[in-house]
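Here is a typical sample entry:
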Amino acid sequence: MSTALSKSEIEAQIRSLGVLVVDDSQFIRKIVRNLLLNVGVKEVYEASDGIAGLEAIRTIGPDIVILDWELPLLNGAELVRIVRSPDVFPVPHVPIIMLSSHGERWRVVEASRIGVNEYLVKPISAKSLFDRIVAILVKPRPIVRVGDYYGPEPRRQFSDPLRHPVIVTAPDEAPIN
């Protein structure tokens, strides 16, 4: 049974987060870093391409990844597919917020289909970023595996073909075998 978190508990959780920002634009990384610092995040890490992002996820173990769709060497969608491979990648459950200058419906659907937790279209505001982080903290969706899909349980459970997922990890619990 989950209990609602108070404002001070949410703020404390946000202060304790380590967030990795993966974007090839130094300017965008700086903006996102400043937005994160302004909403209370104390530890912000950066990577400038998909390969460096994968390595940072492996070595740093961030609590949340904010990831651009368009990246050199390995794009955001390819990076998510690798991360969401539990038999290959060491931290396949890390929450991912996709950040993109593209808001086309197919991209949002594809991001959800490959296991992204949240999707934001640039330009972003501190409020929109804060709201996505709070959604991940306050209402974490269990990680599920259905066929080739591994990621957060889909929101549309009744109309989605993944409506009967097998929960492999519940928040704050060990994997279920």
